[in-house]
UniProtKB/TrEMBL annotation:
InterPro entries: RNase_H-like_dom_plant, RNase_H-like_EbsB-rel, RNaseH-like_sf, RNaseH_domain, RNaseH_sf. It holds the Pfam family RVT_3. It comes from Hordeum vulgare subsp. vulgare (Domesticated barley). This is RNase H type-1 domain-containing protein. Residues 90-211 form the RNase H type-1 domain. One of its GO terms (molecular function) is nucleic acid binding.
Length: 243
């Protein structure tokens, strides 16, 4: 069916499969945004960045608007301990679009669920939420290397970041140089590593640390190696109690 005029275009979009419908909306939104930049003489995205923006928006909207699945039993995902001799590090980033500032958090635990370190810090001049998530993993890797950890599992609640670190698909995006740097550090600095996705429900301590880092005005980074903040130990104890 040929689409003529805005009403017919809308009717055609509504007839598309759900995923293609969301991708079309993301394309139109990105196109409108680039048109506004042109009208205001602002710098525009490259072709690679434009495609990346459409894909990221589509993925985020699909997750946000995904209808809940019906199940006979309701279960909440929980954090799980890593195998013996491996350290699992949960990371998270917080981002405030109005100021382009944010925070990052990282929490490392061993196979018994014991905390190895907790850390947070401020972020300034971030591009977006994905940039904040990427900075969080960068700091986690730096601390793990500094503390002599040879085998690690990195957990993030960003599917896009996991994809970026496990494939070359986003190497040409605006954050591509950061993804490549992280991959290089993982390969050269660690005996063994993995990057895994975890739901937000499994990432509460790191999420709370990132929120604390965003509010931190005294220093760029805080690191705890023995005595940990009460809210961290409380969330960790809750994780272990139900695992």
């Amino acid at each position: 069916m040929e689409c003529q005029g805005p009403i017919h275009v809308l009717e055609c979009i509504l007839k598309l499969p759900y995923e293609k419908k969301m991708m079309t909306v993301a394309l139109l939104w990105a196109w409108w945004s680039e048109r506004n930049k042109t009208n205001h003489n602002e710098s525009r995205l490259s072709t690679g960045e434009f495609i990346f923006l459409i894909k990221r928006s589509t993925d985020e909207w699909l997750r946000f608007f995904k209808p809940p699945t019906k199940s006979s039993t309701t279960s909440t995902p929980r954090w799980t301990c890593p195998p013996a001799e491996i350290i699992k590090i949960n990371t998270d980033g917080a981002f405030l679009e109005e100021t382009r500032d944010g925070g990052w958090g990282a929490l490392a635990r061993d196979s018994n669920g014991s905390i190895i370190f907790a850390a947070d810090g401020r972020i300034t001049h971030a591009y977006d939420a994905l940039h904040a998530e990427t900075i969080a993993i960068q700091h986690a890797i730096g601390l793990a290397n500094q503390l002599g950890m040879g085998r690690i599992i990195l957990e993030t609640d960003s599917q896009i970041l996991k994809q970026a670190l496990l494939s070359p698909s986003l190497n040409q995006s605006r954050l591509g140089h950061l993804f490549l740097d992280i991959k290089y550090q993982l390969i050269t600095e660690f005996i063994d590593y993995a990057v895994e996705f975890c739901p937000r429900a499994c990432n509460k301590p790191a999420h709370s640390l990132a929120a604390l880092g965003m509010r931190n005005r005294q220093s760029d980074q805080s690191l705890w190696l023995s005595v940990f903040p009460n809210f961290v130990t409380s969330l960790v104890t809750s994780d272990i109690a139900v695992s």
